[in-house]
Amino acid sequence: MASVPIDRLIDLYEELVRREQIEADPPTLCVVAAEFVNVSGAGIAILPTGGGMTSLCTSNGMAQELMDLELTLGEGPSVDACSADVVIAEPDLNSPQRHGWSSYAALAHAAGARAVFGVPVRIGAIRLGAMCLFDQRAGSLSEAQSSDAHLMASVVGRAVLALQAGAPPHSIADELAQRGSFDFTVHQAAGMVAVQGAIPVGEALARLRAHAFAIEVTAPTLASRIVYRETHFDPLTREWRETGTTTR
User: Fold this and answer.
1) Per-residue model confidence as pLDDT tens digits over 75-96
2) I want to staple 28 with a disulfide (CB 3.0 to 4.6 A). Which of 17, 57, 101, 145 is the partner?
């Protein structure tokens, strides 16, 4: 993507944060991905260093069945997007023309999918996996859907990288192994701190977590204070300040 559609990126993060705040069980990235791109289902596969592809999350039963097919057969949009590092599109599984999926195409069609798409998930040169989109209707993604799919894959990549950062080499972080949902309030707050302090987002996230530890609160608790402008990072003193105000 040549440039980031800022308005859509804001829409995406706001939806992720909103869903986490109002639901008892935070929605997975896959649920939001399917809704954001407007398709029937979505799945995310990650590619651990030194290991085979594994499923991170799926949005519904159909998506789970299709992801299981790929992992079992070793072919499909996720597999191809991971290996070829390009977007994979098969707009009509009833008469597939573009890919040599000898088993997957027929079985995916029998499971209810008519069109499947694989979008690489990566950050720079780091290849993390793929996001798969499934639709019960035949047809290619529209230009708007394609743009949203790339944007979603970028957000997925940053979320996966952030959670994987603390894991030992050649292993999957516990949070990745246990669930495919992420606290996006923390990442939204880190973005705000990055702007306030004119520092990289990675440094902002590290400072946020360090300050949360120092004041004995969880990172999501401090992140909520930042989002609601009760706490901010002073760029001049490089210290945290309490504003004493709230918009809640």
Assistant:
1) 999 999 988 889 999 999 988 8
2) 57
- Paired with 123 in beta bridges are 126
Burial of 238 (0-12, 13-18, 19+ CB in 10 A): exposed
What is the span of the domain harbouring residue 74? 6-171
Rg (CA), the chain: 19
For residue 146, with 0-12 CB atoms within 10 Å meaning exposed, 13-18 middle and 19 or more buried, which class applies?
A: middle
Contact predicate 226/193, CB 8 Å: yes
In a domain, 103, yes or no: yes
Classify 145 as helix, strand or coil.
Answer: helix
The residues pairing with 116 across neighbouring beta strands, listed in sequence order, are 90, 134
Domain count, the chain: 2
Q: Which helix (H) or strand (E) holds 72?
A: helix 61-73
Residues 153 and 64 occupy one common structural domain: yes
Q: What is the pTM of this model?
A: 0.69
CB within 8 A of 189, min separation 6: which ones? 208, 222, 223, 224, 226, 227
120 and 206 belong to one structural domain: no
